[in-house]
Design goal:
single chain; alpha/beta; Rossmann fold; 7-stranded parallel β-sheet; 3-stranded antiparallel β-sheet; 7 helices; binds fructose -6-phosphate
Amino acid sequence: MKIIRAKNYDDLSRKAANIISAQVILKPDSVLGLATGSSPIGTYRQLVDWYNKGDIDFSEAKTVNLDEYRGLPKTDPQSYDYFMREHFFDHVNIRPENIHLPDGMAECPDSECTQYDNIVKSLGGVDLQLLGCGRNGHIGFNEPSDFFAKGTHVVDLAESTIEANKRFFTSADDVPRQAYSMGIQTIMLARRILIIISGEDKAEAVKQGFFGPITPQVPASILQLHPDVSLIADEAALSLCSL
Ligand code: F6R
């Protein structure tokens, strides 16, 4: 595992965008696994900026997102589909047919999960997976559990995740209780993983996830077993680790 120390959120975002941009320059038809939330907003902003300057071209890139709330339509501003269009897809030349997210409104959750796994497989797997990390160590919406989930599945969101994500909603009551999430196996099969973690409130998750035992109670800890993972964390997120 490579640990890349960033001064702050802006520095972290630039460093992450550099790695994604190098990936797309070296392999224009890369399959990018993408994340939502506060962590990657600066990274997407930087990529859009470089796209506008003509430095990067997404016309052949394909994307698969990690997760989506169950029960929210794409038109809902809190859906991850909406988030991705707002922060990234609408501002670059990714072809709409190359964009994939679980459908939060799917009628049959089981077939939606199977179908999503089949999409990832049909694309040949993920070349570079971008991840954030929850305060409880979740990746995607793989919450602390007694086992590591393999493929795409429906998750009951942990109370701590509902609490953490309520800032995006009018109240905690409005946060959906379930989500679709890519499984740990799919994430671990990505050829490269880039995880970005910012802020003091994530310091414990960094300590447990990257310097503690590997356990499904801290889902990010499984990344210690991946052969090509880069953690970009800012000073605040690394504050409990003596490096
Ligand atoms: C979102 C996702 C989640 C977030 C995590 C951190 O697609 O996969 O695992 O990365 O909840 O969220 P932020 O970045 O908002 O702190």
